[in-house]
Amino acid sequence: MASKVFRLSMGAAFVLTACAGQAYAGYTFTDLGALTLGSSQANAINNVGQVAGFASYDGNPVIWTGTTVTNLGTLGRTGGIGNDINNVGQVAGISIFGGYGTNLQGAVWISATGTGVILDSLGGSIYNYAQSINDAGEVVGWQQTPSGTLRAIRWDGTTATDLGTLGGANSAAYSINKTGQIAGFASTLGDAAVHATVWNGTTTTDLGTLGGSRSEARAINDAGHVVGYSYLAGDVVGHATLWNGTTITDLGTLGGNNSYGYAINNAGQVVGVSSVIGDLYPHATLWNGTTAIDLNSLLDASYLSAGWVLTSANDINDSGWIVGNAYSSVRQEYHGFMLSMAPVAAVPEPATYTMMLAGLGLMGAISRRRKEKNSAI
Asked: Is 5 exposed, middle or buried (0-12, 13-18, 19+ CB in 10 A)?
């Protein structure tokens, strides 16, 4: 008997089932689709639910607002990618011309109408890359020098500043929080190792590793907590890693060898990717504390039978909404996806981060119970 296969279109939504022992019944899945036939990627989500990424094979930077996709334009070039979006809707990313990898310029799209600016390069830079933007409009990323080294850069709207390294030749910045703290990586003296790094004003901090020679910081929340990955001793296996300012924590995997933390919200929830045993594709992962949850395990079986796999969770906002990439073995395409919370979230189990996510709904329920109790007295 032929199996029933369906294709997801722009705006298709499915309610996720609750995983045993967890309260995720409020999650709704949305396939963000693409501008044309082809792939899309959801890279970032802000606290009002706007999503930034790209939505075609040739690279068109876009903002999704709900299921409406807006092409930001390419600022006169051949393509572009939206890497981050702040809470006022400004997008940071790259404008591409002449081919990806050699002709990139950091860019900021100031509005959804496509108005934007190309960020200034430091003298002699071959290309620059804008990775993150905070609500003050400060942008961080990196530039490649004529000698081939990478340097972490901060743009404040008028000036590009080289953030420096840990004594070696290379560095890159991935994230900036509301207070201006910056997370990324830098090479140590003699380029013997590459370590996760935080820049705070003029202070540069080496975050260390889980025993290997390399670590990278990919995101920093407003409390200064940092996530990324680190090699373990031997430099064969790398795990998603949390640095909270005093300790370094191995977040583990979904059973495979490797994992990577891509984002952290102000509730301390981490999303990223992990390898799994017996699957060619990595799986989108949510960490509540040190508990790794395969986001595919929360999907309705009909969605999985259609050949889709959530391969990467790229960002999470303060309401717990998650964006990332999903692969369709039927369509042989990657699409950006969003997992959003329903207006009234399920009441979570005590002592879990999901209690914070359901806060508004829970407070409303408590208020109603109090009113009912008072009216009965």
From this structure: exposed
pLDDT tens by residue, 16-44: 433 333 344 457 888 898 887 678 999 99
* 175-210: pLDDT as tens digits: 999 999 999 999 999 999 999 999 999 999 999 999
The CATH number of the domain covering residues in 24-339 = 2.120.10.30
Burial of residue 50, with CB atoms counted within 10 A of its CB: 0-12 exposed, 13-18 middle, 19 or more buried: buried
